Amino acid sequence: MTDTLPLMATRRRFLIGAAGLAGGMALVTMLPGRTAATPASMQAAVKAVAGDAPMNKGRIKIELPPLVENGNAVPLGIKVESPMTDAGHVKAIHVFTEKNPQPNVVSFQLGPRAGTANISTRMRLADTQVVLAIAEMSDGSFWRDEVEVVVTMAACLEES
Amino acid sequence: MIAWMPVWRIVAAAAIVCATYPAIAEIPMSERKSGYEFMGPDSRAMQDEDTANPGMLSVLDGEALWKRKAGAAGKSCADCHSDARTSMKGVAARYPAFSPAVNRPVNLEQRINMCRTDRQQAKPFPYESKDLLSLATFVGRQSRGQPISVADDENTRPFIDNGRAAFTRRQGQLNLSCAQCHDDNWSGRLAGSPITQAQPTGYPIYRLEWQSVGSLQRRLRNCLTGLRAESPALGAPQLVDLELYLMWRARGMPMETPAVRP
Amino acid sequence: MTARALINVPPKAKRGEIIGIKSLISHEMETGFRPDATGQPIPRNIIKEFVCTYNGVEVFRAEFFPAMSANPFVSFTTVANESGTITMTWTGDNGFFATESVAITVE
User: Which chain A residues are Cβ-neighbours of B48 within 8 angstroms?
Assistant: First the structure.
């Protein structure tokens, strides 16, 4: 499984070109001269919310479909393990991507009144890429999870 | 978006689709499947729950329009048809329907516009406008779960046959017919997406690709663009005939409006 | 045209129960990164902020970026601690503002 992702990407690109019925490559059409988010700009966005705090692995879990049917509306679930009490709760959750036009996706602020840190939403994914989520706890610790998502292209698009 | 594609790729595409499969006939009734069944669990969940289905926002818009007075006659849809939950139940499942006034089938959007001009004495809504789609989605919603039942009689049969001829005719630069994908190869995939049976059970649909609701005719034009074929204008008789054939082909299948599709 | 919103909150709950809240609102969420047919950028037009209050107390807040899908959907939870009103507001570019409220009975 380890070496299949790059292969799939290559094969997919061929099929998109070859099939002809898939009208457009880019789900998020970029303007010339604009820079897309990069792993580096994602790290900068993370630093903007977490500073230099150490990132722990665990406690937060991203749920994304293994294969995305359309990058315009990707169901995203976030769950964080926390008692959600005054003494110990999730203060904020931040979601980032590597290859969208900008790294930030959404930030949530919550607390004990939320009862759980269990959130669902829908996001855009311009391409197969990594999605990163960070939870900020009331004790000042930060926790992270990341997932690579494969985005398939819709067949039969508009004329453009 | 399309012009950059080298010719060899188009040729390769035609070869991939055509090479290995002998043509087979229409899909047996027992094997018909809605596009819903080709979707993953997340997209199905989006359709199934009203608060998660963005098509329901159009239903709400349509409900407001249903009650709003319009035109020189100062009438709303509700003034004639009262409660859509009863008066419109099953109606969208019967469209396109034969209209004696124009001596040919009209689709639901055209029927709504005939009401606009004849009864309300108002300007017709443009095709694919938010208002027309909202009303069609609201009316379609009242048929959810109802079996598709377009008329198959001496009035409609010539038009069903026209639609079938269009469905099976090779066209466009790719020289493909609708049937080659949607009758013969519906269990396959194209560019990573499942090839469906083209059963129009949930129109107007909320298509994730469009990020909005759209009509069956918009979807048909997307397919024709994919074939590199000329698309008739929205509302063109050829597209209505194709709609009618597709609805006839899906006869008995339950309506899902507003469906969600990738 | 006013924005349409659909929200789902259980009308009744037991005191201390964790309830699910779902919200969906009509908005194109134009990213600001897309060109129009002439190549000119289409200006950004997004909802930037979503806030949920429970009897006036904020229980959940979200900051949206252009990577949020059109017609934004958010589901989350809150603790039903008293009867009253749950209110959601959305604010965004070009003076966009929408609000929806529902009553909840807590026993």
Answer: none
Residues of A with CB under 8 A from a CB of B: 12, 15-25, 65, 67, 69-70, 72-73, 75, 152-160
Q: How far apart are CA B36 and CA B38, in angstroms?
A: 5
In chain C, residues with a C-beta closer than 8 Å to the C-beta of B211 are 28-29, 69-71
Helix H or strand E segment including B218: helix B216-226
Chain C neighbours among B 221-260 (CB < 8 Å)?
Answer: none
Per DSSP, the three-state class of A104 is: strand
> Looking at domain C5-31+43-106, which CATH architecture does it have?
Sandwich (2.60)
Residues of chain C neighbouring A100 (CB-CB closer than 8 A): 67
pLDDT at B23 over 90: no
Backbone angles phi, psi at A137, to 5 degrees: -95, 165
Torsion sign, CA atoms B236, B237, B238, B244: positive
Give pLDDT tens digits for A64-92.
Answer: 998 888 999 999 999 999 999 999 999 99
- Residue B193: pLDDT band (50, 70, 90) is confident
pLDDT on residue A121:
98
Per-residue pLDDT band for A156 (boundaries 50, 70, 90) equals low
Are the C-beta atoms of residues A78 and A62 closer than 8 Å to each other? Answer: yes
Express each pLDDT in B45-56 by its tens digit. 999 999 999 999
**How many Cβ atoms from other residues are within 10 Å of residue B18's Cβ?**
16
CATH of the domain at A54: 2.60.40.2470
Residue type, B118: D
For residue A18, what pLDDT band results from cuts at 50, 70 and 90?
very low
**Chain C: touching chains (3 or more CB pairs < 8 Å):** A, B
What is chain C's percent helix, strand, coil content, to nearest 5? Answer: 5, 60, 35
Q: Which of B51, B130, B212 sits opposite C24 (nearest CB)?
A: B51
Q: How do A117-123 and A129-137 pair as beta strands?
A: unpaired
Residue A2 falls inside a structural domain: no
Shortest CA gap C68–chain A (Å): 4
- Chosen from B1, B48, B51, B212 to mutate, greatest number of chain C CBs within 10 A: B51
**Domains, in order of start, for chain B:** 33-262 (1.10.760.10)
Beta partners for C25?
C5
- Paired tokens of B113: 């516009």
- Residue A72 maps to a domain: yes
Q: Please tell me the predicted confidence (pLDDT) of residue A157.
A: 66
Total domains in the fold of chain A: 1
Which pLDDT does position A66 carry in this prediction? Answer: 83
- For C18, the 3-state DSSP assignment is strand
pTM of structure: 0.88
Which residues on neighbouring strands pair with residue A77, listed in sequence order? A63, A120
Q: Which domain holds residue A88?
A: 33-151
ipTM > 0.90 (yes/no):
yes
Residue A121 domain flag: yes
Contact at 8 Å (CB) between C53 and C86? Answer: yes
State the chains in contact with A (3 or more Cβ–Cβ pairs under 8 Å).
B, C
